[in-house]
């Protein structure tokens, strides 16, 4: 996803300062970010609006993980964290299945009867 977009404003549904305290934090594999949030994080504003939460992405140095920080009221934070973790798992499994199919196809090409 390249560089992570910087936070420029706080959405109107996030109450300052109470909703900015005690955020929910989890980590996602960096390779899943584009699938989850769109190119350059283009889907983040929509996800924030629908979930009534504010998201912040922080790249972790020397790691293939990105930290996702979710701000908002207690229930919105938990719901958004659960939704995003579910999305990450779905995309991870989808990519894994794609890699398995690719490996099977490569094996089939190598072992085809015409190759012997």
From TrEMBL:
Coiled coil: none annotated. Residues 11-95 form the KH-like RNA-binding domain. GO terms for cellular component: cytoplasm. Its main location: cytoplasm. The keyword RNA-binding applies. GO terms for molecular function: mRNA binding. It is found in: Cytoplasm. One of its GO terms (biological process) is regulation of gene expression. Keywords: Cytoplasm, Developmental protein, RNA-binding. InterPro entries: KH_dom_type_1_sf, MOEP19_KH-like. CDD domains: FILIA_N_like. Belongs to the KHDC1 family. Involved in the maintenance of embryonic stem (ES) cell pluripotency. Dispensable for self-renewal of pluripotent ES cells and establishment of germ cells. Associates with specific target mRNAs. This is Embryonal stem cell-specific gene 1 protein. It comes from Papio anubis (Olive baboon).
């Amino acid at each position: 996803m390249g560089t992570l977009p910087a936070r420029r404003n706080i959405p109107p549904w996030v109450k300052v300062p109470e909703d900015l305290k005690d955020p929910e934090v989890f980590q996602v594999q960096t390779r899943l970010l584009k699938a989850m949030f769109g190119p350059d994080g283009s889907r983040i504003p929509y996800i924030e609006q629908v979930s009534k939460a504010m998201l912040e992405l922080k790249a972790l140095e020397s790691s293939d993980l990105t930290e996702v920080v979710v701000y908002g009221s207690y229930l919105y934070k938990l719901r958004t964290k659960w939704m995003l973790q579910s999305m990450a798992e779905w995309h991870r499994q989808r990519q894994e299945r794609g890699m398995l199919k690719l490996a099977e196809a490569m094996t089939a090409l190598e072992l085809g009867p015409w190759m012997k």
